[in-house]
Structure formats: structure tokens, C-alpha cells
Amino acid sequence: MSKSNKEVPKLKLNQGWNYAPAPESASHVKLKDKYDLFIGGQFVKPTSGKYFDTINPANEEKIAKVAEANTADVDKAVKAARTAYDKVWKKMPPKERGKYIYRIARLIQERAREFAVIESMDGGKPIKEARDVDVPLVANHFFYYAGWADKLQYAFPNRIPQPLGVAGQIIPWNFPLLMAAWKIAPALACGNTVVLKPAETTPLTALKLAELIQESGLPEGVVNIITGFGETGAAIVNHPGIDKIAFTGSTDVGKIIQKAVAGTNKKVTLELGGKAANIIFDDAPIDQAVEGIINGIYFNQGHVCCAGSRLFVQESVYEEVIQKLKDRIETLIVGDPMDKNTDIGAINSRQQLDNINKYLKIGADEGAEMYQSSCNLPGKGFFCKPTIFTNVAQSSRIAQEEIFGPVLTVQTFRTDDEVIEKANNTPFGLSAGVWTDKGSKIFNLTTKMRAGVVWANTYNKFDPTAPFGGYKESGFGREGGLHGLSAYLKV
Amino acid sequence: MATSTIKKKTAAKAPKVEEVQSNGAQAQRLEVLKTYKLYIGGQFPRTESGRYYVATNRKGEQLANVCTSSRKDFRDAVIAARGAQKGWAAKAANNRGQILYRIAEMLEGRRSQFVDELMKQDSTKAQAETEVNLSIDKLIYYAGWCDKYQQLFSSVNPVASSHFNFSVPEPTGVIAAIAPQNNSLLGLVSVIAPAITGGNTIIVLASESKPLCAITFAEVINSSDVPGGVVNILTGKPSELATQFAAHMDVNAVVFCENDELIQKDIQEKASLNVKRVLLYNDVDWFSDKGESPYFILDTQEIKTTWHPIENIGSGGGKY
């Protein structure tokens, strides 16, 4: 008997509930008006003499001015990293190297709240996510890799692993501090030195990390943090003194980087875009699956490379799932990221909001049905309502291209075979989700998915011990766990 | 506050009378001596037997009266260790790592106390400092292993049938260890750290001739978020307790570090009563690099293999 004929009870979670404002205070946060480049253990003025503003995307107000590094600044940073590598870091006993990284981990734990607040202010993510997800993961990542520093020979039996040298690291704006941790921690543990560039819209937590690194007593030049736009990133990629490029960002830029380093000896790891399938079978615990779908696509405003942006629902439970999803997004609180009740914060930048809106139009033009929550959006700042597209074709651009926003496309399927085929029919291969009560089906799906991370009856789970990274055009190399070490070692 | 200077006297045995100069006024005060007790289940009891022995330095000067633990004290410790084992093993590996790191932090903060105690027990200052440094660094070393040894010693097994088959290490359970007898702190730390890193709980008998650091180390453990019962420290005579350690039916493994073949054989025989794992570390130099490795963790791990079916339908993989 088809379950779809069953009357679906309507969830009324949001009725009668009015949340009073619960803003997190920013009074304990120490921010300067102007940030210089962190090179050789000092904050130095940019050669360019230029600064740019970083704004709070939730109210469009300027938070601070940040230096723009040009080619000469990049050169200075690479030289500082090289000197630190040759003179100090590669010679340091691994145990002592590890102890520095432990110190950084501990200092982050001590200052966790300050980092969470700045992350939310600068990037627009809800404070509850910055506080409960980003910053704890950051501390744990440093703690985890600190421990590897004196144990590398156990990770690669029959080898004596050697560091690569100077790593150039370019990170995105969706998890600014977490991506800095994912890059810096393993690089240092393996004995490399670092030149890191955070994204232009979210430089502040990386610069605060630079201050913290100064406080930790880490030898000068081991970590250099320079800010700027795409040209600064390109200067890092093209600098001949760089031994390794680690990039997290869009597939388009990843391809440019891969091409740019062709013919050099630079080692590369790329963590690029995704368009993950989140697959709901009819034997799944539906209410839990609905929570997993919500978390999968609306976590961090959907600015997540592994977001579960393509939902596949087995036909027999389609109506039930869609109704529950629509009811559930009505309950999502969209607004001030600094409010502790907020579920969906601000879109990271005007540019990204324009990009998302472009895709909403494309979806409608392609004939998909759009459903949005009826919530009110704040008058200032960049916001987008949680959105669901149904009636989406496999060939539709909204189902093929990465939107990087709170936009879910829904497709249906009948058989396991069909959904495996559809789910894998994408140039991306970063992650996937599977929801079913049947363990044997989970392992069938995880075996068949062409993706680097597969979540079963859960979604968007991260841990420093668990390798993360993509298949196909989602990039290569892994971050996290034992496998994350090889990105920074000659073995 | 005005500066106060404490004039040190070197006599180890007699209660010290120290001159304290505070705000220019002269005052006399008597040094308070520490009572060295046992550490069982997060408490510091005296031995139920009421027995003691006198710990001395090489010159024969009395350092302290130390508990001579009895079989009953050991049994109490096993009960505490057994009670704590499940919860300790269930803690997130990362959390165990943080706790071991915390032990190192506490030890670092009290380093001068340990250096003092080691010097009382005949170490030179340089030797004492080396031993304390190595002990701290060893705890950091094993803190790092807490969430890593699993990745080294686990496997996914490519069985021929349609199964997802994997093997993971799990803690052996309750470990009874007789600490290396020729040093006071480093040997003790060297047997405790790998056992608790791997989620086991442990009862350790301290060095008989150099027992002071063991009980002071218990104070460090006690202030490091280590749940009571995870580490239990006894003082007393290996000659008396080794056989009890090996024979107890609720102990899963026994560690012995000395070259005494008679005791080794006795332990091996008694261990067969409940098929205890016997770990003889008689040729390990705890001061060398060989004194630490993940294989010490593996020594108190069991390997569990799980078979899970894979529903082998659908062929969509690999095409793109």
C-alpha cells in the first residue's frame, strides 16, 4: 500500500512561540581599527600602502580596515617562512614542535568565546554555530595534529617522512578560522612553515589567530598571515619559493591553480566545490531524516562545500517528506547572526547574495517550483530565505551547479540503482548522505557513491581524526586524520 | 607584600625549624611534613593493614613512613579500577587526550616539588630535572596517542564475501602493574600512561625503595580531571604483592618490569588462572626513546572484528 495516500499530520512547531531577542554581547571582544600583515612574527604595513574594509554582512557596517598584500609583500612573507624553515622549524625536535602546537590549541580554548563572536560578526554565521561547531573544531584540530608531530614515522611505515618546506595556503570565507586550522595545524606538525591567505570578506579571525600565535611564542616566520584579494592568492601560487599549495575554494579557481603550478615541483592539494546528494529511502526514520536534510542544506546558510544540496526522496514517501520539510523551514529563525536563537544568519557578501538570487531566477525559469519560508528578512544586511525547489530535472542548472546558499533541489527515485545513477551523475564528488534503517543498504550506497565523505543517517559531521576531501572535480588530497598528513610530507 | 626569605636547612629527617622573615619581624615556624598515603578510587586512604616501612635515602636517613599495602588494599583498588573502567573507555578519545595533557600541565606546575623529592631520594639535580622533564614529555606523547593509535592498529579487511569487515582495538580492562623499581617517577609514568591512553584502568605498585614520587604523582592525577579509580597507586613490597597481582580473578593483565626470573615465573603461572595477559618489560630503558611507543598501548588492547552485510544491488558506481 502506498504511504503517500496517508494523511500527513501538519507540524505546528512555530505557533505560539515567540523568541525574545537573545543577542550575544561583543563587549569582551578586542578588535583594532586597522590590521597589518603578519610576516616574520610582526605586524607590518603593506608595501602597497593599501587597505580594504571588512564589513559585517548582517548590517553592512565596517568592522576594520585590513591590509592588501601585493607581490612584494607575498615575497617578504615567503622569505620569512623560508628563513624560519631553514633556521628553526625543520631543525626543531619534533616533540618541541608538537608542544608549540598544543600551546596554540590551549590558547584557542581559552579565548574560544572571543573567536566565536568575531567569526559571527565578520562572516555572518549564527553565533550558535561559530560557538558550538567552528571554534571547538578549531581547537581540537590543533590538539590532534600537535600529537602527530613526534609520531610521523608510525603513520608511514618503512619511511622516514620529511617536510616539504614552505606551504602556501589559500582559504575560503565559509569557515574562515576552521579552514585556517585545517591548513596550519597539519603543516606545522609535519615540520613545514606557512604563508596563509584568508578570504577578503572574512580576514579577522585569521588575524586574531596571528595575534594568538604571537602570544604562543611560536618562532617568528613559522606562520605568516597575509590578507588580500584574488591577486594576492595568485602571487602566492606563482611564487617560486613555495613548495606546496593547499587551496580550499571553488572548483573554477582550483582548476586555475592546478594549471598554474603545472611544470613546477609544487605539491598541491585542492578541496573544491560540491553538489552532494542526500538520499532518503522510504524505510528511513523520516523525522530524523528531515532534521538531517535541514542541517545538510541550511547549516551555515548553505555556504558549505559538502552541503546536501540535492535531495533525493524515494517516491513512496515523497509527499510526507516534502510536507514535513516545508513545515520545518517555517520554524527556522532567519536574522541577526549574533542572536543565540538564530538558525540562519547572513549571506557572506553582497556578491554571494547576488549569485544565489541569480540561481533562484534560473530555477524558476527552468520550470522548477520554488517554495520559501514566509519569514521576514531584516531590512539591512544580506539575507536569503530558506528555499526548496521541487520538480527539478536532473539536467537543470540548479541541480548541476554549486549554488553555495540555502537552496535545496528535490528529485525523486524508485530504485536503489536509479538513485545511485542519479546521485553520481555530477562532476563533483565531495560528499553524500544516505538515510535508511537498513545497514546493508547503507554499505551498498557508501560503496557505490563516488564521493570522499558519505554520511549515513547523519550529515555534516566533522572531526579532526576523520579524513575529509573529494573525488573527481571536488579536488584531491585529504584533510584530517592520518591521511591528512600526506599532504604535507615527502614519504 | 614585603619580601620574605626562607632559609633552607638540609636535614632530611628531623622536623625543620625555619626562620621566616616577614615585614622585618623574625618568626619561627615548623615545617609541616606530608603523610604518604595510598591512592585508591580517587581517595587517599592509609593501608587497612596499618603496616608501614621507612623509606630512606642512600645514607640511611629517614625520608618518610610509607604504607605497606596489603592484599586487601589491592582488592579494594581492583574494585575501584573495575568500577571506573567502563566510563573511562567510553570517554571520547579526544577527551582522554585532553585529560592526559592536563596531567602533564599539572606535573609541569609542580616540577620543583618532584625535583626536590627525587633529590631526597639520591638523584643529583641534573638527574632529577631530566627525569621530571622526560615524565612530562612522556605524558604529552601519550596524550597525542589517545586519538591516533586506533588508526594505526585498525583495519578494514577485504573479505571475499559481500561484507563490510573491520577490526578495531579495544581496551583489555583492568591492569595490575608493578612499576619499575629503580626510579621513582619516570618508570611509574611509563607504565601508567600507555595503559590509560588505551582506555584501561590500572593499579600500580610504586618503587619500593623510591616511593615518594608515586604518592605525589597521585596528587597530580587527582587534580587533573582523571576520574577516581582510573589510576590507583599502592606502596609496599613487590615480593609480597606480585603473586596477588597475578592471581586476582578480576584483573585482565599484569605488568612486571624487573629481571627476577622467579617472580616472572610465578606471575606467568598465576596469570593462567584467568588467562591474564602478562607483560614483562624487564629490558626496557625508560629513559631512552625505546621507553615509549604505541606498541606499549597495543599491549593492553584486544582486537575486535565486526562483520556487516552489504546489500549488493545497484551498479551505478564507477561510471563517472
What does this molecule look like?
The complex is a heterodimer of chains A (491) and B (320). Chain A is of the alpha/beta class and 491 residues long. Helix content of chain A is 38%, strand content 17%. The radius of gyration of chain A is 23 Å and the shape is globular. The termini of chain A are far apart. The model of chain A has no long low-confidence stretch (mean pLDDT 96). In chain B, helix 7 links the parallel strand 9 (201-205) and strand 10. With 320 residues, chain B is α/β, with parallel strands linked by helices. Chain B has helices at residues 71-90, 93-109, 111-120, 125-145, 149-153, 186-197, 212-222, 238-247, 261-271, 294-298, and strands at 5-6, 17-22, 25-30, 52-56, 62-67, 155-156, 163-171, 174-178, 201-205, 231-234, 253-256, 277-280, 301-309. Chain B is 38% helix and 21% strand. Chain A binds chain B through residues 95, 98-99, 102, 140, 143-144, 146-151, 154-155, 415-417, 419-421, 423-426, 438-441, 443-445, 447-450, 464-465, 472, 481-482, and chain B through 93-94, 97-98, 101, 137, 140-141, 143-148, 151-152, 164, 294, 308-320.
CATH class type of the largest domain in chain A: Alpha Beta
Structural class of chain B: alpha/beta
Let me know the largest β-sheet of chain B: 5 strands, parallel
Amount of helix of chain B? 25-40%
Low-confidence stretches of chain A: none
Mean pLDDT value of chain A: 96
Query: Which strand-content bin applies to the residues of chain A?
Result: 15-25%
Enumerate the strands of the largest sheet of chain B in spatial order, edge to edge or round the barrel: 10-9-8-11-12
Q: Could you name the CATH homologous superfamily of the largest domain in chain B? A: Aldehyde Dehydrogenase, Chain A, domain 1
What's the CATH H-level superfamily name of the largest domain in chain A?
Answer: Aldehyde Dehydrogenase, Chain A, domain 1
Distance between the amino and carboxyl termini of chain A: 58 Å
What CATH architecture label of the largest domain in chain B applies?
A: 3-Layer(aba) Sandwich
Strand-pairing-aware structural class of chain A: alpha/beta
Question: What proportion of the residues of chain A is helical, as a percent range?
Answer: 25-40%
Shape of chain B: globular
